[in-house]
Structure formats: structure tokens, C-alpha cells
């Protein structure tokens, strides 16, 4: 057993390592935080399903020793809905990139949140499509350079946490890869939450987004994250201009509302009691 | 549960009842004419059996949800019509690749795009075969009566479970909306097939290890196994095997072989008065009804007409066509489309009989009189 208390051997398919992510990529840090949260939560591996989308973050499920699959692009939450509704006793974790979650999968995100179905959504937001070569995503900031916005991006970005919150998610939090322990804390709370929980992890893509926007090395980008992150309470006192190139971190939502599959089970109970 | 009794029900209700009788306990759908009544029936009745219904945000989500539920062990189904069927194609491919059993009902309506929502057609036949990208097999059944809607839905689940693959059921706007009398069998008398479940030591389990039958045992989520899969070409471990050309071919072959090595079990075709027939009508779905009636009428007029009715459109019943092409002078394919299965029949006939096509694509069922007229037209100077 190694110095990590066996977490690596227990949860990672070590034969699949090293992972494919670039030096400086934040995905590995997020995965690290996630498996520590899973370990802390004491989740049974055979009762847990991890689904990951397409893109760099999509590779995460393949490194994990859980029931896991990587289906078509953008539909992770819809598969999760089927699994969770049919077998609510399973823990279902969805790992998505910003494009997978908020662009091609945006419809499933808002509806899974609206239903408050008890799955955990982990969003790795690196502000671009990395796997396909650095195109703009729905979270790419205005004016940013990407391969498909070579003259500067003219679209405003989505705030995924706000999107989830207004859609009805009952646990929403954001942190970043400079703070892996905070990520672990949020993941753990999301895993324990009874309802739709989303944690957005801001992470860097130094190879594409970073290089195209002259953000420096992976290390420099990581340190910069600390400066860009603004606590929720502090952000409330700041102007839009002051929040430029920053992102707000913290727990945005943590509330109790009826969970979808429990509501459905009550219908079954009621219908069966009435007889047919 | 319905017990051996006579009922007058619609095609859509028969599909839903058949599915529940087959053990379907998860349904996801999105409203669409002329398929919505299947959703209505499932929404109302699945909870009685402890099953789950959900109306998803779109047909892409519906297809994904039934795949997810099936991976957790459910017999699952969705129903739709042309526009929704188009949206389901990508996930249909995932279900084929990951070998996830499920049933997809396409109640065919008229035309491409929105077409006409309320009138029948048979123009999704090739989409059922080739709608999702890449090489893949297809099991597709066509429904021609309400009785078949019930029975073939059960069979669709049996085939899906047995061969670990999605199965497509093709109904049409008329059949799904019309009512007929059927006798609902006692559920105890039905042949119900459940997927082969993994029994090996979880440490030894490989999700796509062929046990010699060509069909790999399934480990539903939550049953004590831990496994990985992907829509990426994978090997027996479920993990991508994209750098080895041999493994790429093996995966595609395996998908085809499990169907092609079991054609005797899968292919279903009905023949009517084919023995001495000089004219063979090839018709399926609603059109088969008119074709069968036409055979009787034509014989009363002295024209020896028989019918080959493919029940499984895919895999196509080639042997039945090969048998009749030797004796019949003319093979007339009747379809409510611009010519789809016609090309397959033509391919199998290989020029050994005259081949003719009666296609009607105006939203109306093909009437027996029209088929009879077509027979007379194509047989001038032949019979």
C-alpha cells in the first residue's frame, strides 16, 4: 500500500495509467479530488455507476474501478436518468466537460436539474473543447481566442452553476484545481446530497486554451486560478468590471426538495395500494 | 395482468400491453403523433407493475434513458415516429455497439421531415436498417395486425434479450390508431426470454467474453460486478481496442455473426398460397393485409397469386424469396413508399423472375383492388 492510503489502488485501474491528459491539465487533479470524496463517502464500488461524456474529461470513467461507461457525446445525464430511475439504490456519477454538459448536453442538464433526480454531476470546465483541438465552448469567455474564434470570441459564456441553479438543482458548488481539498469537500457533499447535485471544477487546458490565450505554463495557469477565484460573499460586493476574468467560487445552492425517484416510488406505492 | 380474455384495442395499446406482458418495466418517451398512446398506456400502467415511466426532454434523451435502464437490468422500451426515430439513431448505434437490449417502436408516418403526422407510410424501412452510422446488423419486425402488435412486441423483447441488441418494431399510423379484436393470452402461456446473466466470479468477469454462443452474458448494474464499456470499438474487456486492425474487424464481425449465425431462429416470414403461385406479392405491415385479401380475389378470377409476408424485415427473409423465385413468373413488391424493400427483393430475386413494384405514397393504405389491377397490368403477356 502506498502513501495515498490505498486510494489509488482501490479506485483507479492502475493498468490503464498513465492517463492521456497533457502535462498541466487540471483533469487529473479533479479526478484525484473525486476519488478521495468517494472514499470518504464510503460508496460501494459495485453499487456505483460512473458515466463520462466525450472529450478529454470523458476518459475519466475508463480510469475508475466502478461500473462505468463512455457513451455518445452529450447524453450522460439522460443515461443517468434511466439508471437512477430504474434502480434508485445505485449511486450515479456523471463526469462531463463544459461542452458535453452545457452545449450538446445542455438540454439534459436543465431537465435533470429541474427534475431534481438524485445524480451527481461533475463538470470539468476548461473553457474550450480540448480533445478536438481547442474550439470555443459554451463557457469560453468573450474576446478569448480559440481555433474557431481566431479573431476573438463574440459570444457571451454560460455560467454553468447559475444555469443549474435556475433550472432547479438543489446542490450547486464551484471550486478549482488550485484547491483540490475544497473540491473534495464539495464532491463529498454532492455525493451525499439527495437530489440533483452539480459541482463545477474550473480546470486549465494549458495545451490549447492556455497557449492560444498566452496564459503561460500549466503551473502559471494554476497559480493564476487562485487569483481569479473570488469567494461568493466577496463577489456580491464587486462590480461586473471588477469580476472580469474572475470566477466565483463557493456553494451556491444547498437545499432540500423532493427527489425525483422517491416521488416516483411514492406513485408506485399509491397505485399499488389502490389495487388494479 | 391481462388474463386470457377478448379485447378490442388499438395497435398502440396492444404494443404497450405486449411490452408489459414481456416484462418491460421501464419506458421513456417523448410526445409524438401517431405514437403517443403507447406512452399514455405505459404512464398509467407501469406503476401497477412496479415499473417506471418517464417523459424525457427529447427523443435523444428517451433513447439514452432506456439504454441506461437496460444496463441496470430493465427490459426497456421507447416509442416514436419518424422525426423522433431520426433523433434516436446515434444512441441506437451505441446500444448495438455496447450490446444493450432494448426495443424501439417506430410508428411510421408519412414523408420526410415532419411529413404528415396522422397518415401511414412505410418509408422508414431503410432507416430501420441503416439509420445509424457505421456497419451494423439490424433486427426489425413489421406489424400488420393488432394481434401481431401484441405478439410481436413480446417477440421483439425476446430477441432483444436473447441477442443483446436493440430491436426495432415498425408499426404505422393506421395500424397503431385502429382497433381490432384480439384474444389476450394468459401470461402464463407466453414464452418469455430473459437475457443471459453473468454467473462467473466477478474477478474473472470480462463483459464481452464470448462464452461460445456468440452472445456475452450480461451483468446488470448493482449485481455485484464491476465493468466498463464504451461505444468506441472495444475488445472483450470492454475497453477501447482502436489501434489493432484485427480487433476492429473482430468486433464488427461479432456483432454481425450473432445475428447471421442465428437466422433460423430470428427470421420470421409467412407464406400464403405460394406453392403454385405464378404471381408472388411481397408485402409487409399494413400492406400485407391487402395483399392477402388480393390473393383470394385474384384466385377467384383464375390468377394464381400467393403472398410472401416478411415479418422480420431485417434480417430479410432471403430464403423465402429464393424459394418462390424459382416457380413464380412475377414477383410484385407492394409498399407504402417510393421503393425501399423493393430493392432488397430485387437483389435476392437475381433476375430469376420478373420483378415489379407497386408503390403508393399518398398517405392512404393500398387497397386490394389496386394490387389486383397492378397484378393484371404486370402479368399481361407473362402469365
Describe the protein.
- The complex is a heterodimer of chains A (276) and B (383).
- Chain A is an alpha/beta fold.
- Chain A is built from twelve helices and ten strands.
- In chain A, strands 2-1-3-4-8-7-10-9 form an eight-stranded mixed β-sheet, with helices on both faces. In chain A, strands 5-6 form a two-stranded antiparallel ribbon.
- Chain B contains 13 helices and 16 strands.
- Chains A and B meet through β2, α4, α6 and α12 of A and β2, α3, α4 and β10 of B.
- β2 (67-70) of chain A pairs parallel with β10 of chain B, so a sheet runs across the interface.
Per CATH, the architecture of chain A is 3-Layer(aba) Sandwich
Mean pLDDT of chain B: 96
CATH homologous superfamily placement of the largest domain in chain B: Thiamin diphosphate (ThDP)-binding fold, Pyr/PP domains
**What is the β-strand count of chain A?**
10
* CATH fold name of chain A: Rossmann fold
Q: Which CATH class of chain A?
A: Alpha Beta
* CATH architecture grouping of the largest domain in chain B: 3-Layer(aba) Sandwich
As an assembly, this protein is heterodimer
* Helix/strand/pairing category of chain B: alpha/beta
CATH topology of the largest domain in chain B: Rossmann fold
Extract low-pLDDT stretches of chain B: none
Please tell me the overall pLDDT of chain A: 96
Shape field of chain A: globular
Could you write a compact summary of the structure shown?
The complex is a heterodimer of chains A (276) and B (383). Chain A is of the alpha/beta class.
Amino acid at each position: 500500500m502506498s502513501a495515498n492510503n490505498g486510494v489509488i489502488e482501490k479506485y483507479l485501474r492502475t493498468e490503464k495509467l498513465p492517463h492521456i491528459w497533457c502535462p498541466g491539465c487540471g483533469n487529473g487533479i479533479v479526478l484525484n479530488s473525486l476519488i478521495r470524496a468517494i472514499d470518504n463517502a464510503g460508496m460501494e464500488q459495485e453499487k456505483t455507476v460512473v458515466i463520462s461524456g466525450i472529450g478529454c474529461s470523458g476518459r475519466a470513467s475508463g480510469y475508475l474501478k466502478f461500473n462505468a461507461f463512455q457513451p455518445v457525446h452529450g447524453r450522460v445525464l439522460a443515461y443517468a436518468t434511466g439508471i437512477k430511475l430504474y434502480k434508485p439504490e445505485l449511486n450515479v456519477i456523471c463526469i462531463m466537460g463544459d461542452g458535453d454538459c452545457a452545449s450538446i448536453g445542455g438540454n439534459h442538464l436543465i431537465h435533470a436539474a429541474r427534475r431534481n433526480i438524485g445524480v451527481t454531476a461533475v463538470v470539468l470546465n476548461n473553457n474550450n473543447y480540448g480533445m478536438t483541438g481547442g474550439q470555443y465552448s459554451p463557457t469560453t469567455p468573450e474576446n478569448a481566442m480559440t481555433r474557431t474564434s481566431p479573431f476573438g470570441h463574440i459570444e457571451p459564456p454560460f455560467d454553468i452553476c447559475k444555469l443549474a441553479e435556475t433550472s432547479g438543482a438543489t446542490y450547486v458548488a464551484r471550486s478549482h484545481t488550485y484547491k483540490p481539498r475544497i473540491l473534495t469537500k464539495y464532491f463529498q457533499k454532492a455525493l451525499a446530497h439527495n437530489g440533483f447535485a452539480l459541482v463545477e471544477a474550473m480546470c486549465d487546458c494549458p495545451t490549447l486554451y492556455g497557449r492560444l490565450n498566452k496564459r503561460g505554463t500549466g503551473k502559471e495557469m494554476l497559480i493564476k486560478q487562485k487569483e481569479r477565484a473570488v469567494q461568493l460573499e466577496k463577489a456580491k460586493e464587486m462590480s461586473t468590471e471588477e469580476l472580469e476574468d474572475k470566477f466565483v467560487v463557493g456553494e451556491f445552492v444547498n437545499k432540500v426538495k423532493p427527489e425525483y425517484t422517491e416521488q416516483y416510488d411514492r406513485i408506485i406505492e399509491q397505485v399499488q395500494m389502490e389495487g388494479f | 395482468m391481462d388474463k386470457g380474455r377478448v379485447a378490442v384495442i388499438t395497435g398502440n395499446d396492444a404494443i404497450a400491453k405486449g411490452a408489459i406482458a414481456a416484462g418491460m418495466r421501464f419506458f421513456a418517451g417523448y410526445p409524438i403523433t401517431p405514437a403517443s398512446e403507447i406512452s399514455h398506456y405505459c404512464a398509467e400502467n407501469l406503476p401497477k407493475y412496479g415499473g417506471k415511466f418517464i417523459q424525457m426532454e427529447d427523443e435523444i434523451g428517451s433513447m439514452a434513458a432506456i439504454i441506461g435502464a437496460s444496463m441496470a437490468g430493465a427490459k426497456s422500451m421507447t416509442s416514436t415516429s419518424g422525426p423522433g426515430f431520426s433523433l434516436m439513431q446515434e444512441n441506437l448505434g451505441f446500444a448495438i455497439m455496447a450490446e444493450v437490449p432494448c426495443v424501439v417502436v417506430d410508428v411510421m408516418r408519412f414523408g420526410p421531415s415532419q411529413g404528415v403526422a396522422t397518415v401511414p407510410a412505410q418509408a422508414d424501412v431503410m432507416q430501420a436498417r441503416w439509420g445509424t452510422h457505421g456497419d451494423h446488423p439490424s433486427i426489425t419486425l413489421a406489424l400488420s395486425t393488432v394481434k401481431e402488435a401484441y405478439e410481436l412486441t413480446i417477440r421483439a423483447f425476446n430477441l432483444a434479450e436473447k441477442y443483446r441488441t436493440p430491436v426495432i418494431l415498425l408499426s404505422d399510423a393506421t395500424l397503431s390508431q385502429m382497433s381490432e379484436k384480439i384474444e389476450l393470452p394468459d401470461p402464463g402461456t407466453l414464452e418469455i426470454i430473459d437475457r443471459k446473466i453473468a454467473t462467473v466470479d466477478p474477478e474473472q468477469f470480462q463483459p464481452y467474453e464470448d462464452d461460445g454462443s456468440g452472445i456475452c452474458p450480461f451483468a446488470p448494474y448493482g449485481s455485484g460486478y464491476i465493468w466498463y464499456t464504451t461505444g468506441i470499438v472495444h475488445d472483450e474487456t470492454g475497453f477501447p481496442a482502436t489501434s489493432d486492425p484485427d480487433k476492429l474487424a473482430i468486433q464488427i464481425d461479432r456483432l454481425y455473426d450473432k445475428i447471421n449465425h442465428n437466422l433460423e431462429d430470428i427470421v420470421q416470414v409467412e407464406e400464403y398460397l405460394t406453392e403454385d403461385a405464378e404471381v408472388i406479392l411481397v408485402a409487409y405491415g399494413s400492406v400485407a393485409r391487402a395483399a392477402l385479401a388480393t390473393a383470394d380475389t385474384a384466385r377467384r378470377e383464375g390468377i394464381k397469386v400467393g403472398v410472401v409476408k416478411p415479418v422480420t424485415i431485417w434480417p430479410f427473409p432471403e430464403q423465402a424469396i429464393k424459394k418462390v423465385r424459382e416457380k413464380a413468373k412475377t414477383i410484385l413488391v407492394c409498399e407504402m413508399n417510393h421503393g425501399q424493400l423493393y430493392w432488397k427483393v430485387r437483389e435476392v430475386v437475381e433476375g430469376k423472375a420478373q420483378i415489379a413494384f407497386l408503390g403508393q405514397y399518398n398517405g392512404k393504405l393500398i387497397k386490394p383492388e389496386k394490387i389486383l389491377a397492378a397484378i393484371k397490368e404486370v402479368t399481361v403477356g407473362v402469365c
